[in-house]
Amino acid sequence: MIKFIKSAAVAALLSAAVVAPGYSQTVDTSAVVAACAPVDASEDACLAAIASFNASLAGLSAAEADAALGELAGALAAASLEEGSNSAVIAAGLTAIAAEVTDPEQAAQIIQIAAAVETDADIPVFAVPGGTPASPN
């Protein structure tokens, strides 16, 4: 049940991240996930991959870049649900992503998700627009 709640929150984050008008670029998050998620990942390699991802966003509007960064945050949060993922490195990566986001509300949501990933807590559904808590049943 906890994995389902976390997956639902991540799915909501991903869907909320792609609302920038006119945003149509396909975002490839695989290099960052590969650098940040494995159990033997290093924070330095993760942060370097995120810096490279950020560099690839040059020329996009702030809304478009925020949407891409939201997709990246969602991909890392989803990776944190996988067995053998490195929660500490993923949380550091999410924190770095939040620092690049221009929308303060989105940045705060990513920080909340980073804290949840780092402590292996449920990802806060309330932190994601449109998210609904699971039924108590």
Write the layout of secondary structure elements.
Layout: H1 2-17, H2 30-36, H3 43-55, H4 62-79, H5 87-100, H6 104-118
Helix pairs in contact: 1-4, 2-3, 2-4, 3-5, 4-5, 4-6, 5-6
Q: DSSP helix count?
A: 6
The unreliable regions are: 14-24, 126-132
Largest β-sheet summary:
none
Q: What is the residue-mean pLDDT, rounded to a whole number?
A: 81
**Could you tell me how far the N terminus lies from the C terminus, measured between alpha carbons in angstroms?**
11 Å
Shape: globular
Oligomeric description of these chains: single chain
Tally of strands: 0
Structural class: mainly alpha
Instruction: Give the DSSP E fraction (strand runs of 2 or more residues).
Output: under 5%
Signal peptide: 1-22
Organism: Pelagibacterium nitratireducens
Protein name: Secreted protein
Keywords: Signal
Brief rundown of the structure:
This protein is 61% helix and 0% strand.
Annotation keywords:
137 residues, 0% strand, mainly alpha, signal
Structure report:
Helix content is 61%, strand content 0%. It is mainly alpha-helical and 137 residues long. The longest helix is centred in the middle third of the chain and has 18 residues, at 62-79. The chain is globular, with a radius of gyration of 14 Å. Mean pLDDT is 81; it is low at 14-24 and 126-132. Residues 1-22 form the signal peptide. Keywords: Signal. This is Secreted protein. It comes from Pelagibacterium nitratireducens.
